[in-house]
């Protein structure tokens, strides 16, 4: 075994080992550079993706003429992606987007169009024509003759005075209606020319008693309803105790007949001007009437139901017959005006001292029909 060989071998091994170490170090350094470059590239791409629009493309040669418009569309119409590349169609998307935007009234080359869509006042198409160029509209005058005019007669829908279908069998032994007068001497004018100042009279032909006579006659003759009409004078001598006197009379009849379908204390009001107390029905002047109640009396609830029913009938058959103040309400009155005696006890005022006797007699006829509807009508 020679020296050269041994010596040569040793040197080669050392040199080879040094070369391998250098090569490994070079590879390691190169890997670090590449890793840094990759990370930097990825980070740059990420930042560009966040900062820049995702799909908007603009050509510098056009000085970004529609870039603002593109950004607006991308933000407002998120379902669409606008792009702009000069002289070419990007995968056909521009053509599709242009059609859709045109349908929406937006011009891709005119950013103002999207502003106009949001602010109608700025619509450039809404231009007011010059007055000089505007057409003048003229309306030719014409005349209508009587045959060309549709005339509608306005009538007061008033029912006839009598209805034969409401007539029942009269039974005098069992009266259904009681009429009396706490203020028996309350009187009316004999006519419109009557200048007397007497508002009270014992002449029952011109007092509330005369109205009671008309009601009694019509109910019995035309509707078969038996009536007791008490004409006892209760208000002479001691006017304040009139209701006490009439209460005695009422108690007498209630004891004798037990009950009535309707009990009426018939009065008149005191008003010097009858202008608001007159209506016209079937061509004749008729005095208007109203109800007076005491809402603290124990029978008020039932009485109010009866009054409401009669008012409904009156308004349906004879509009305007009831006064505007259809119900005058007291709490207690004078002994409840005897209304605490029966659920069917009512106080009715027909007209006033300024009405003439014929006007209130006419009211008596129409009240008879209303009462007949209440007692004999279909429920």
Distance between the termini: 149 Å
Tell me the series of helices and strands, N- to C-terminal.
Answer: HHHHEHEHEEEEHEEH
* Overall number of structural domains: 2
CATH level 4 superfamily of the largest domain? Zn-dependent exopeptidases
Shape: elongated
InterPro entries: Spore_II_P
Pfam families: SpoIIP
Protein name: Stage II sporulation protein P
Task: Map the helices and strands.
Elements: H1 3-51, H2 67-76, H3 93-103, H4 112-118, E1 177-180, H5 208-223, E2 227-229, H6 242-257, E3 262-269, E4 278-281, E5 284-287, E6 289-294, H7 300-317, E7 322-330, E8 345-352, H8 357-376
Parallel strand pairs: 1-2, 1-3, 3-8, 6-7
Antiparallel strand pairs: 4-5, 6-8
Helix pairs in contact: 5-8, 7-8
Organism: Clostridium estertheticum
InterPro entries: Spore_II_P (IPR010897)
Pfam family, one: SpoIIP
């Amino acid at each position: 075994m020679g020296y050269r060989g041994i010596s040569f071998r040793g040197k080669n091994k050392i040199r080879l080992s040094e070369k391998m170490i250098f090569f490994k170090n070079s590879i390691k350094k190169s890997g670090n550079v590449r890793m840094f470059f990759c990370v930097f590239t990825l980070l740059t791409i990420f930042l560009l993706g966040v900062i820049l629009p995702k799909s908007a493309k603009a050509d510098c040669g056009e000085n970004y003429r529609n870039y603002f418009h593109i950004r607006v569309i991308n933000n407002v119409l998120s379902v669409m992606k606008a792009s702009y590349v000069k002289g070419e169609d990007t995968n056909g998307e521009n053509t599709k987007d242009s059609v859709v935007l045109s349908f929406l009234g937006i011009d891709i080359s005119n950013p103002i169009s999207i502003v106009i869509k949001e602010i109608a006042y700025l619509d450039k198409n809404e231009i007011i024509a010059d007055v000089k160029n505007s057409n003048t509209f003229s309306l030719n005058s014409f005349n209508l003759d009587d045959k060309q005019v549709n005339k509608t007669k306005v009538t007061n829908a008033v029912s006839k005075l009598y209805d034969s279908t409401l007539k029942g069998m009269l039974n005098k032994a069992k009266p259904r209606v009681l009429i009396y007068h706490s203020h028996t001497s309350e009187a009316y004018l004999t006519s419109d020319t009557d200048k007397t100042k007497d508002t009270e009279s014992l002449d029952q032909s011109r007092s509330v008693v005369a109205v009671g006579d008309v009601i009694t006659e019509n109910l019995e003759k035309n509707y078969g309803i038996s009536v007791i009409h008490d004409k006892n004078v209760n208000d002479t001598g001691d006017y304040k105790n009139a209701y006490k006197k009439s209460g005695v009379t009422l108690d007498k009849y209630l004891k004798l007949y037990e009950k009535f379908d309707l009990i009426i204390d018939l009065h008149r009001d005191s008003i010097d001007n009858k202008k608001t107390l007159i209506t016209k029905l079937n061509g004749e002047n008729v005095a208007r009437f109203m109800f007076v109640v005491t809402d603290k009396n124990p029978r008020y609830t039932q009485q109010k139901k009866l009054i409401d029913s009669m008012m409904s009938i009156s308004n349906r058959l004879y509009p305007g017959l009831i006064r505007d103040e259809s119900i005058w309400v007291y709490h207690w009155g004078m002994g409840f005006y005897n209304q605490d005696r029966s659920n069917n006890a009512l106080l009715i005022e027909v007209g006033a001292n300024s009405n003439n006797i014929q006007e209130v007699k006419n009211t008596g006829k129409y009240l008879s029909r209303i009462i007949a509807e209440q007692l004999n009508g279909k429920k």
